[in-house]
Amino acid sequence: MLHQPEPDALLAFPGLSRILIVSDAWIPQVNGVVRTLRTISEEIRAMGKIVEIIGPDQFNTIPCPSYPEIRLAMFPGRKLTRLIDEFAPDALHIATEGPLGMAAQKYARKRKIAFTTAFHTRFAEYLAARTKIPTGITYAWLRNFHGKGAGVMVATQSLRDELVSRGFTNVRAWSRGVDLDAFHPEPKENWDLPHPIFAYVGRVAVEKNLRAFLDLQLPGSKLVVGDGPQRKTLEREYPDTHFAGARFGAELSAAYAGADVFVFPSKTDTFGLVVLEALAAGLPVAAYNVTGPKDILGESDLPVGALNDNLQLAALDALKVDRTACRPHAETYSWTACAARFLDNLVPTRTYA
User: What architecture (CATH level 2) is domain 9-177+335-345?
Assistant: First the structure.
């Protein structure tokens, strides 16, 4: 079970008190990377350490081509150098492979300091979906990018195995958690829709493979909770689907709990935090048998969902799952354990890369 921390994780590198994270994914973006970094930062601060996150919000930015909600830092090198020098980190973590990540790596290599990276998203597949650039070319670049660090963190065992097979080295386990105080089986949203309700929650974007869900022939209703660049297009194409928009906080928890099955059609996520959120809200999960869902669902002693290369069969099978098993499985994933493993994976900057 990859998500369990080492027993002495909290004791690792006790001298690492000033931790700097550089990420192209940061507020006001709403995605799994941002949620992960925000939450572990809070957990690490609670352990008495100092954490700073440098994101695009501190730079002049331009919209990401084909995804304007994401802002990319413009020529961040000089300012980023000043910010890193002023913070003087004991450990440097480069979370993403965008302009900030590349500038941070250039800084670290020039100063001959060690750093860690993380493989949060399937950038190669996302880029191929938008530009048709072959994934092999992008993976070669990613292998070189992460290979310059002291370790690349991944969320699941299946992704770890895949990256090793692609030639990545020094791959380190770093699972995820779920906010068990924020997501509950009760209260439930009283959706004014015919049951059973098959719901998707997350970004409405091409890489999430939403059409695979919306094209399914299922009883009851389909519900989409979230927003993104594909929403208007999909609303026109699928008028029988209820698009509820983005929900947050207690309303998001109730949205999950009020459905009957959570359908996760993505084939490119490296984990799928929304899968844990759904389980914490007592909602069975239907997904393809791919990295992320198969790691999370496969670790449960009791069925908490269904995996199948045929997503329709998975959705119908998940409808038969005993919902009472879902929450206990989600409770095995804690953000404290996630933060502890992150700390355990860090390396001192004084160590030469």
Answer: 3-Layer(aba) Sandwich (3.40)
